[in-house]
């Protein structure tokens, strides 16, 4: 499974338009990434793909010295419960 970067998103699939899983974000320009949506096709659920997508966005935030404002309920739950992500969790 290859995670690809698109325009304000990371995804798994053939293209940005034909994806099997995705996570989207907005870059507010003030060192904040607002992560607003996560989707995994039902045929791929239960394989940890959503978490891998979250991890890629976290890596991006760390590399760019940004924090994440998790608007997406899934991302918010992951980040609130995983202490290792709190360095990039918007306070």
UniProtKB/TrEMBL annotation:
Q: Which molecular function term from Gene Ontology is one that the record holds?
A: acyltransferase activity, transferring groups other than amino-acyl groups
CDD domains noted in UniProt:
NAT_SF (cd04301)
Pfam families reported in the protein's UniProt record: Acetyltransf_CG (PF14542)
User: What UniProt keywords apply to this chain's record, in alphabetical order?
Assistant: Transferase
Q: Does the keyword Transferase apply?
A: yes
Which SUPFAM superfamilies does this chain map to?
Answer: Acyl-CoA N-acyltransferases (Nat) (SSF55729)
Presence of keyword Transferase? yes
This protein's superkingdom?
Bacteria
InterPro entries to which the protein is assigned, alphabetical: Acyl_CoA_acyltransferase, Gcn5-rel_NAT, GNAT_dom, GNAT_YJDJ
Q: Where is the N-acetyltransferase domain?
A: 1-91, 2-90
Question: What name goes with this protein?
Answer: GNAT family acetyltransferase
